[in-house]
Amino acid sequence: MSEAPATLPAVDHQRVVFPEGLALDSGVMLAPMAVAYRTYGALNAARSNAILVCHALTGDQYLAETQPVTGKPGWWSSIVGPGKPIDTDRYFVICANVLGGCMGSTGPREEMTDANGRGLGRPWGIDFPAITIADMVRAQKKLVEYLGIERLLAVIGGSMGGMQALQWAALYPRSVFACAPIATAAHHSAQNIAFHEVGRAAVHADPDFCQGAYWKEGRIPAQGLSVARMVAHITYLSESALTRKFGRRLQGAKALTFLEDVFAVESYLRHQGSTFIRRFDANSYLTITRAMDYFDLAADHGGDLSSAFRGTPTRFLVASFSSDWLFPTAESRAVTRALNRAAARVSFIELESDKGHDAFLLDEPEFHAALGGFLSGSADAVGV
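RE: above sequence
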């Protein structure tokens, strides 16, 4: 058995607990249910300036402040704040940890409850019920209602966050004035499901996984989770980005070897894997990747994606990046065409970038200007 790495640190997250719980798509009643969240800016008197930002697969609610586990800046600090495209002098910005996550919302790390909501004195672990993107959104809706907000000015998200944004517009069209799904799709492709399965297989194969009960031994399946992260991270980048950063640069190995890092890109991926295991729970990873895989908004509406948005009053900005091969532009165009068929008010933009899928998280001034303009125009329309 390998040396046990440190388990995730306990952090006192801001959160609200809903004792009545949430009925999941799986048929399970999850009660109580907690949603961890952060807010930025101030809610105006009319409660009309709220923007919900939905995070991606391994993101969290620490949008524009120091992440308490890693000590790094918030994942969208570059565009959320006073005077920035998501201007917290004008908007009240909400970001919640998704259901099934590991940063304070109810997930595999939380105490398991029975059918009557009674705590069982152990984490859910691998027994946490299957969840869907719609379950995540219903949990967010309860948070938004708890905050006294009837209609969101906008719902924004990239990647899995974009799936949530689309699901919000489909489930609660009267509660979403504007919606910006970014670098995403209306279903998870077979190729993407395949990549996820490789990651899950790596976690399952780790002897420290202990069939999902690693928490009993104070261990984590570090090797498997690290490999899962490395595989996923490759899909977040483009060939151009990898070549620009690393090319075929060697690390200075003294001889031909199979036993140590040789190429710079190998060290980079191993660093990504080793840092990931210090901030993410393996059972949460299994839960949330499955939620993405299940997502198919057209299938939920008789196979016709436009039916999900028929008669919608929501205005949309659909954005993609030219080098994103995880969620290629063709999938954003499919969403846009469905919105057109539904007679929705929609703008589409493909941003030229060689940064791959992660471009939505990086310095992309044209994207930032487009998103900021869309939000500002929406705010003007409702008098914010």
